[in-house]
Amino acid sequence: YGLISSTLKTYLPDRTFHVRLPSVPRKIRRQLPSPEQVYQAVKGTRIELAVLLAMWLSFTESEIRGLTKSKSIDGDYITIREVMVVVDRQDVIKEMAKNENRNRRHRMPGRIKELVDEVEGDVIVPLSPSMLLKDLKKCLRAANLPEISFHDLRHINASVMAMLRIPDVYAQERGGWKSDHIMKNVYTEIFSEERERVDGIIDGYFEKFV
Hints:
This protein is mainly alpha-helical. The chain contains eleven helices and five strands, in the order αααααβββββαααααα. The chain starts with a helix and ends with a helix.
C-alpha cells in the first residue's frame, strides 16, 4: 500500500483516495520465563555476561558481539560504538548501529562490570550467534524452562521496565527503540539526573537476584 500510495501522489497529486486498511491482528505472545529464572539458568556459564547485557541493558545480539574493552568501556560506562553482523557467513564490523537511537550509553551495573573485567582479550563476548543460542537453549532445558530466542531477552527487559512503570521516554532511550510504538508493539529530552534515577530502579530490581 505504501508503494501504491506514493505512486498515486506522484502521478495523480490532485486526486484523493479514501482507503481503509484492515487492522493488524494483535499477536498473542507466549509466556516468557522470569528474569530471575533465566539468570539462575545461565549463572556461572560462558553466556552469563551476554544474557545480562541483553536482559538487563537491552542490548541486541549484534550490539553485544560488537563490544570491545578498547572502544566500548569508559570507566563505569559501556557504550555502543560498533555492531558485529554476519554477512555471507562472515562476521562484519560496522561502526554505527542501524539507526542513531541504537548508539547509546549505559552505566554498568556491578555484576556486569565484574564479568567484563574478567574477560581476557579485547572482545567482550567472543561467541557466534549460533553459540549464544545453543548455550541459551541448553541452559534453559537444564533448568526445565521453556526455550526462547536470544532476542526474547530484550522482550523480557521491556516487560521489566513496563512492570516497574519506567516512563516511556526513558524505556525507549535505554532500549534504543526508534519510537514508543515500536517499543510497545514490537516490544522528549532525557535529563541525566532523572535517567540515573531510572537506571537505579532497574538495577535495584536485577540486583536482588544477581
